[in-house]
Design a protein that fits this description.
5-stranded mixed sheet, SpoIIAA-like_sf, STAS/SEC14 domain-containing protein, SpoIIAA-like, STAS_dom_sf, globular, 41% helix
Amino acid sequence: MQGQVDVVAADDLVEVHVSGKLSREVYEEFVPLLEEQIREHGKLRILFVMRDFHGWTAGAMWEDFKFDLAHFRDLRRVAMVGEKRWEHGMAIFCRPFTTAQVRYFPLSDLEAARDWVQETQPA
């Protein structure tokens, strides 16, 4: 299944909804949107929602790694929402690559994830 990304941004909050297997081309479309939000609003809060997600191609993983290095300090909170056990593991794996607070939520707790990512006090 080809990957799809939908991005909705409002101020410093960006919702990223992904499905399928993400390719380098998909990253080339949505990373500039994130970088524009960073330039406009500073540190971002990201709600990353995975539905029927199958991971990344090697090229997309490289693009993700480059984004993480370039924006190590540009994220405030990242709520990762998913359906699968490995997605939870991915949230733990991501923590050393950002100064952001990163937390995983099951898809059934999407609203709780949305609330958490918008909180202003440290968790």
